[in-house]
Amino acid sequence: MKTSRILEYLDLLFPNPKCELTYFNDYSLLMAIVLSAQCTDKRVNMVTPIIFAKYKDLEALKNANLEDLENIIRPVGSFRKKASYLKDIAIILVDEYNGVVPKDQRVLETFPGVGRKTANVFLSEFYNYPAIAVDTHVERVSKRLKLAYNNDSVVKVEEKLMKKFPKDKWAKLHLQLVLFGRYYCKALKPECDTCRLKDLCRGNKNERIRR
User: Fold this and answer.
1) Residue 131: burial class (beta carbons within 10 Å; 0-12, 13-18, 19+)
2) pLDDT over 90 for what percent of the chain?
3) Which end of the chain has the lower number of beta carbons within 10 A, N or C?
4) Is 169 assigned a catalytic role?
């Protein structure tokens, strides 16, 4: 089956996939994911050590000077909005959750700067919660491999992936698809010639999108 081939190839390429964001506890991971919106993990990893060295706990972040935080975050883009998100998240975690990031997708989605994708990435990575977060890499790979249609929303892509792959594979599969899209099935100049899945690829055959 196609899904079995995809899993086998991803296991070959990424037998032990790891999140490439730098973090040391629950809130540092959540905040790193928030910062990664429209930004590379590499660039986020340049600023998070500075943030967490200056603000050593949530209480310090809660009371951070917003302008100072903005200056640190500036390289990741949308720095004013993201600085506000981080400070507000720290306030919520300290005041309402005793400093612990809740293990609840719906609750997380009420946090500033946290949407479905961010919540899924966090829960999958930190708690090994069965989830498939659809970022730009996962969406691109899924559509190229005909696991979804090109006009499907990210929520629809997520639903289709969850139906096609076993639940116990979701957390690992998410990371594998991210890495596959980041390093092999790239947006520009994908490495199609060496890809063992190129016969499954919509782009390779230049097929019309079927509904």
Assistant:
1) buried
2) 91
3) C
4) no
